[in-house]
Amino acid sequence: MEPLELLREKIPDFPGYDNEVARRRSDEYVRSYLGEALANLAASQTLSPELAQRVDALVLRVGFADQQAFSRHIGIGPSGASKEDDVVAADAATIELADRAALLEPAATNRYFDEVAAALDGREAALRAAAAK
Q: How far is the C-alpha of 82 from the C-alpha of 6, rounded, in Å?
């Protein structure tokens, strides 16, 4: 399945990337989707103080847009290999990662949080690269 198709399947009324308002809303929807998955994970498991602190930091991180990326115009195209398509792919990967949270075994939680942090780093890098275009 194409990344944009996945996003539209997983997030009802996903706005896409056609204009600045849609891009900002899409960013918000992806961050909210992941934040909800992280909050549900934290509520369903007994986390050590260290893991509780990590999930709190991740939830806080997804609560706010990357203003550096959005301070410049980001033009995201629907197809073709480009920096813009990296954003769509990163968003789809973030959604797939969020969906894994519900199936996570407690022993894998720390490693999962590492994956989430790396995915957010990659997503922010893709947004900044698209903005620099």
A: 19
Please measure the distance between the N-terminal and C-terminal CA atoms of the chain and give it in whole angstroms. 27
Q: ∠ at Cα 29 (26, 34), nearest 5°?
A: 130
- Look-up of token digits 């986390």: 47
CB atoms near residue 23 (< 10 Å): 23
Q: What is the pTM of this model?
A: 0.88
Amino acid in the structure at residue 71: S
Inter-residue contact 3 to 79 (CB < 8 Å): no
Question: Domain extents for the chain?
Answer: 3-7+17-132
Taking the chain (133 residues) in consecutive chunks of 10 residues, what is each chunk's mean pLDDT? 94 89 91 97 95 96 76 48 77 97 94 97 87 68
Q: Which residues have C-beta within 8 Å of that of residue 85, sequence separation ≥ 6?
A: 3, 76, 77, 79
Tell me the two tokens of residue 78: 């629907």
